[in-house]
Amino acid sequence: MPAGLRGEKIGEEIIQKLEEGVRQLSKAPLKPQQRLYLLRVHQLTSVYHGLVLGKYSKGLLRYLDRLSRKAIRRWLHLPHDAPQSFFHAAVAEGGLGIPELRTQVPLMRQARVEKLFDRACWDHEWRC
Fold it and tell me: Which of 7, 105, 122, 128 is the most exposed place for a label (fewest CB within 10 A)?
């Protein structure tokens, strides 16, 4: 991964945070559905802030997606060749409902920039 301004790797803190969260979920005496819920609702959403506001690369997002899918395969005893669409499809469509960071983070960042631009237009009475 590319180095940042201070020499640290981009996303190193986020990787450590998600890896530690997955490690704790794996050790906890929980049922597989409970682990899946906590990963989806708490662990993945906790890294959104750093990813949307900080630097990231496609490689980093791909690595984080693989990390979460690998943990889910282990918890649910899924075969290695389970399709990615099964993990990321909505629950109503028969999937697990895990957000795909590779697609969600750029969309979140774009929405944030658009909101900032719209607010700047209103604050300065620009004709946008």
Answer: 7
Phi, psi of 101 (to 5 degrees): -60, -30
Cα–Cα distance measured from residue 24 to residue 18, given in angstroms and rounded to the nearest whole number: 10
In angstroms, the CA 78 to CA 86 distance is 11
**Tens digit of pLDDT at every position of the chain (128 positions):** 444 445 557 778 889 999 999 999 999 999 999 999 999 999 988 888 888 888 888 888 999 999 999 999 999 999 999 999 999 999 999 999 999 999 999 898 888 888 877 765 665 555 55
Among 97, 21, 27, 32, which residue's Cα sits nearest to residue 64? 21
Q: What is the pTM of this model?
A: 0.80
